[in-house]
Amino acid sequence: MKDFTIRKGDEFIKLGQLLKAEGLVDTGADAKFVIEEGQTSVNGEVCTMRGRKIKDGDEVSFRGETIRVHGS
Hints:
By secondary structure, the protein is α+β, with helices and mostly antiparallel strands. The chain has a single domain (2-70), classed as Structural Genomics Hypothetical 15.5 Kd Protein In mrcA-pckA Intergenic Region, Chain A, CATH 3.10.290.10. It is built from 2 helices and 7 strands, in the order ββααβββββ. The strands form 2 sheets. It has a 5-stranded mixed β-sheet, with no helix packed on it. Strands 2-5 form a two-stranded antiparallel ribbon. A hairpin with a 2-residue loop joins β3 and β4 (45-46). α1 crosses α2. The radius of gyration is 11 Å and the shape is globular.
């Protein structure tokens, strides 16, 4: 499991941005595709919303990787 800390001053990061920031996809277009295809889950539930707000305490899974998100 990886840990990700939201940038200081921000309350959330969008799902697509998180995948990009963690290097799990190369571009925003790639993020859009894998999310819309149902390849990501948030807190154990499939998520197809690229703009989903990921907040402190959320866990995102994609292709066998899990990211635990922490607030700043």
